[in-house]
């Protein structure tokens, strides 16, 4: 995303990184800030930032993760701020595509004529209603705490997936042993979901 901002807004890398973080913090998705303040086209941004040639060779799953997802009861719906085609590509590369009943990507998260990705609480309620699920019967497994907070606000249970939490993402500096009050469980991997 930072490279996209450098190329298309004509700013240097530190400024691009600052804008990426600012818009993510303010709008929940960098893209929303780019659309609102710079006139970036959603489809262009999603295509440019998620084409990633050779992705399939870079991602891999583990048999224990696959087994854990198979054993996990209930419906599995992937809700992602990435484009649906990209999410399906990743699921296929990981051998997980058959385990998910539905994939809801960024482009499907529209309400009132505007994109409303995670952490928008109205969108989370809308997704539950469309899937005929009471929020209290849903569990959001997610690595981003602000999304967890929104899910809890609408009544969902929350699981903080810490496997991919890095030093440079939105959770940088957060103590992983800490469990915020809006997080029901912390897990390090998919196999931990069954415990």
UniProtKB/TrEMBL annotation:
It comes from the Bacteria. SUPFAM superfamilies: HAD-like (SSF56784). One of its GO terms (molecular function) is hydrolase activity. It comes from Roseateles asaccharophilus. InterPro entries: HAD-like_sf, HAD-SF_hydro_IA, HAD_sf. NCBIfam families: HAD-SF-IA-v3 (TIGR01509). This is Putative hydrolase of the HAD superfamily. Keywords: Hydrolase. The keyword Hydrolase applies.
């Amino acid at each position: 995303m930072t490279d996209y901002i450098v190329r298309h807004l004509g700013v240097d890398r530190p400024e691009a990184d600052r804008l990426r973080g600012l818009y993510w913090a303010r709008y929940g998705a960098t893209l929303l800030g780019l659309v609102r303040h710079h006139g970036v086209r959603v489809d262009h941004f999603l295509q440019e930032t998620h084409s990633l040639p050779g992705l399939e060779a870079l991602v891999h799953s583990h048999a224990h993760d696959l087994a854990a997802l198979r054993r996990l009861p209930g419906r599995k719906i992937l809700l992602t701020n990435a484009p649906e085609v990209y999410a399906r590509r990743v699921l296929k590369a990981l051998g997980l595509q058959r385990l998910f009943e539905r994939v809801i990507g960024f482009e499907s998260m529209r309400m009132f004529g505007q994109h409303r990705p995670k952490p928008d609480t109205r969108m989370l309620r809308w997704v539950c209603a469309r899937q005929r699920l009471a929020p209290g019967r849903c569990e959001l497994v997610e690595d981003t705490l602000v999304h967890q907070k929104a899910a809890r606000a609408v009544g969902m249970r929350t699981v903080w997936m810490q496997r991919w939490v890095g030093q440079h993402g939105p959770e940088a500096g957060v103590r992983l042993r800490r469990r915020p009050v809006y997080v029901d469980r912390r897990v390090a991997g998919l196999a931990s979901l069954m415990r």
